[in-house]
Design goal:
By secondary structure, the protein is α+β, with helices and mostly antiparallel strands. The chain has eleven helices and eleven strands.
């Protein structure tokens, strides 16, 4: 459910004070707009967008006893966060840790957006002692832990509604573990077997394969190089999920080929053109795989549909 508000008076009277304990101060004459999207049911993860200005948590509003942490991930080009006398400037993809019980502000001179992951104080402290000292510090977007966390959030968003309740509980624990790694890690995480890292790497690998499957010659080494892991490590985590790199790549290519061949809104395409478009360079190999997968040759499938 997306919460929209187009009146700063309504925001202050209801959304800001009653729901979020926040105020808002505009910095321009642009029409006010606030949008909040808790996009994972039951999770305290929210996408937020605002018109130019500052969301403010004053000393008065922060006295509600909420001791949780929020990991703020910038979605806009420029974002400023201030807390505990520190002012941190963030670019898109960068993050900072904020303490809900402390006064502070988040905003920009232009329209801005962010994702906030709310985590209980006890859970985060148990994973990283002394983490409170890192409040309002910039976490670079190239931090491996933060990169894994972002890809895991995207994966959860795509697959959330298909997950069982038990699986969602596992994902929730992984979020906190990955957030702790993002906040604390100063070096590369490496080829860790820590289950949250493996889950996040798997999500990142599948996302990359899904994005780039049409590239001819795409191999496991290409994806592994992008993720800064070895091909053997990547193959292992894919196989642990019940698939392999080749199987996943071929399935995506074949499903795309099927969609192109049976799309009646376009002129019929040559089989060779379809094969090349989805990433196959060997037409005979494409024909064999297609028939094994769908029970018909590409030409027969196109004619039937």
């Amino acid at each position: 459910m997306v919460i929209e508000c187009h009146s700063i008076r309504d925001w202050r009277a209801w959304f800001g004070r009653e729901m979020f304990n926040l105020d808002f101060e505009p910095v321009s004459d642009a029409p006010f707009r606030a949008s909040l999207n808790p996009f994972l049911d039951g999770m305290r993860i929210v996408k937020a967008d605002f018109s130019p200005g500052l969301t403010i948590r004053s000393k008065e509003l922060s006295g509600d006893g909420d001791a949780d942490y929020g990991l703020l991930i910038a979605r806009s080009k420029h974002l400023h966060a201030a807390q505990r006398g520190r002012d941190v400037a963030l670019k898109a993809g960068e993050a900072t840790l904020l303490r809900v019980s402390d006064p502070g502000s988040v905003g920009a001179q232009e329209q801005f957006g962010f994702i906030t992951l709310m985590m209980p104080f006890a859970d985060l402290e148990a994973r990283a002692r002394g983490i409170g000292n890192l409040v309002a510090r910039r976490i670079h977007r190239r931090s491996e832990g933060l990169d894994l966390l972002r890809s895991y959030v995207r994966s959860a968003e795509r697959n959330w509604r298909r997950m069982s309740g038990q699986r969602r509980e596992v994902v929730q624990r992984h979020f906190t573990d990955l957030a702790a790694l993002a906040i604390m890690a100063e070096t590369s995480i490496g080829e860790s077997r820590f289950s949250p890292v493996v889950a996040a790497r798997l999500a990142a690998a599948l996302e990359h394969i899904e994005t780039c499957f049409g590239m001819p010659g795409l191999g496991v080494a290409d994806v592994a190089r992008r993720m800064a892991v070895s091909p053997r490590y990547l193959q292992r985590i894919l196989e642990q999920s019940g698939t392999s790199f080749t199987d996943r790549l071929n399935e995506l290519r074949l499903q795309k080929a099927l969609a192109l061949l049976t799309d009646q809104s376009r002129r019929p395409r040559r089989i060779s053109d379809v094969a090349m478009q989805v990433g196959f360079s060997d037409i005979s190999h494409f024909n064999r795989l297609f028939r094994a997968r769908f029970g018909e040759t590409p030409s027969a499938m196109r004619a039937a549909r």
